[in-house]
């Protein structure tokens, strides 16, 4: 998608956001994505372009943003870094995640347009998601999360809907390695019961992308208040979940249709699991051997 080809459309969206029936201003879609920090004149122009053009800011390349703000590309990069991001791609990933929450699910289909080769485009888009995810996290952040998981008395992994997928992978493979890990994918009273037992030494892993699920956010905040360690996997670097998290790992989650992609989240989970195995290699291998023997005893597989 090339927003620069639709300047009138981007302008119309700004007007709509300024005057819609609910009174939402053009600044409201950003939430806390842009912190209140001192800005130079050039940085202020970049921020104003972002605030007034949700669609453009979410999809345009850096040259288009620079042109609109009457600055060079380097100024856009420095603005993103000054705002607390690793660079323009990291900031744009945050903006796009918020923009896709702001519009309706049906409008997401319009935003993405038709696909001539859905399989090719889905895989190609996920390659980009993986690249963005790799660029959005540094090794130190990942190692700190792995260390917390490896030292945990217990681990509860929370994921609802589509995001129960990576949560299920983490809980299943983690238990296969001998970790005291459980999955909570039901929300409601079940989530309350799972969270209520957490305290110091326990870890709550929250996997939540796209729209923030209120129950999950409150559960994460309650777990943190009770002394548990919170590891969050999210497509937002800012917000209530990020604030509650002791360890935040950021993923790109945009898909090519009306739904989000969990490919990057799954890859991140695989990385955490590999680190967890490496932290306790003897225990992991002994548990895996027992598990494999049980597979044979239970006659689970054809071979």
Question: How would you describe what is shown here?
Answer:
The protein is an alpha/beta fold. The chain folds into two domains: 3-117, Orthogonal Bundle (Arc Repressor Mutant, subunit A); 139-297, Rossmann fold, CATH 3.40.50.10490. Helix content is 58%, strand content 9%. It is built from 15 helices and five strands. It has helices spanning 7-19, 41-52, 54-59, 62-69, 73-82, 88-102, 105-112, 118-136, 139-150, 164-176, 188-196, 214-225, 240-244, 263-279, 281-297, and strands spanning 154-158, 181-184, 202-208, 229-234, 247-250. The protein has a five-stranded parallel sheet with strand order 2-1-3-4-5, with helices on both faces. Strand 4 (229-234), helix 13 and strand 5 (247-250) form a beta-alpha-beta unit. Helix 8 packs across helix 14 and helix 11 (188-196) packs parallel to helix 12. The longest helix is centred in the middle third of the chain and has 19 residues, at 118-136. Mean pLDDT is 86; it is low at 1-24.
Short description:
The chain is an alpha/beta fold and 303 residues long. The chain is built from 15 helices and five strands.
Secondary structure elements and their pairing?
Blueprint lengths: L6 H13 L21 H12 L1 H6 L2 H8 L3 H10 L5 H15 L2 H8 L5 H19 L2 H12 L3 E5 L5 H13 L4 E4 L3 H9 L5 E7 L5 H12 L3 E6 L5 H5 L2 E4 L12 H17 L1 H17 L6
Parallel strand pairs: 1-2, 1-3, 3-4, 4-5
Strand order of the largest sheet: 2-1-3-4-5
Oligomer: single chain
Mean pLDDT: 86
Q: Estimate nothing, just give the exact number of structural domains.
A: 2
- What is the overall silhouette? globular
Number of helices: 15
**Radius of gyration of CA atoms, rounded to a whole number:** 21 Å
């Amino acid at each position: 998608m090339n927003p620069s080809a639709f300047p009138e459309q981007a302008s119309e969206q700004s007007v709509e956001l300024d005057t819609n029936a609910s009174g939402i201003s053009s600044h409201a879609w950003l939430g806390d994505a842009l912190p209140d920090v001192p800005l130079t004149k050039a940085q202020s122009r970049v921020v104003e372009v972002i605030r007034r053009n949700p669609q453009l800011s979410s999809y345009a390349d850096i040259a288009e943003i620079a042109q609109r703000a009457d600055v060079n590309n380097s100024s856009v990069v420095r603005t993103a870094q000054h705002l607390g991001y690793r660079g323009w791609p990291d900031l744009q990933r945050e903006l796009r995640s918020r923009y896709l929450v702001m519009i309706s699910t049906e409008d997401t289909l319009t935003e993405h347009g038709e696909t001539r080769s859905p399989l090719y485009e889905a895989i190609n888009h996920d390659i980009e998601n993986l690249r963005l995810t790799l660029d959005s996290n540094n090794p130190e952040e990942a190692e700190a999360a792995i260390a917390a998981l490896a030292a945990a008395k217990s681990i509860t992994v929370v994921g609802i809907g589509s995001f129960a997928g990576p949560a299920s992978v983490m809980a299943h493979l983690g238990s296969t390695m001998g970790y005291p890990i459980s999955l909570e994918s039901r929300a409601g009273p079940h989530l309350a019961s799972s969270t209520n037992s957490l305290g110091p030494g326990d870890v709550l892993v929250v996997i939540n992308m796209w729209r923030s699920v209120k129950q999950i956010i409150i559960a994460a905040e309650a777990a943190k208040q009770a002394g548990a360690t919170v590891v969050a996997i999210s497509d937002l670097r800012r917000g209530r979940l990020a604030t509650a998290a002791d360890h935040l790992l950021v993923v790109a989650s945009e898909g090519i249709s009306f739904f989000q992609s969990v490919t990057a989240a799954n890859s991140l989970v695989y990385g955490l699991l590999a680190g967890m195995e490496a932290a306790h290699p003897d225990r992991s291998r002994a548990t895996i051997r027992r598990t494999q023997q049980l597979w044979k005893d239970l006659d689970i597989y054809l071979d």
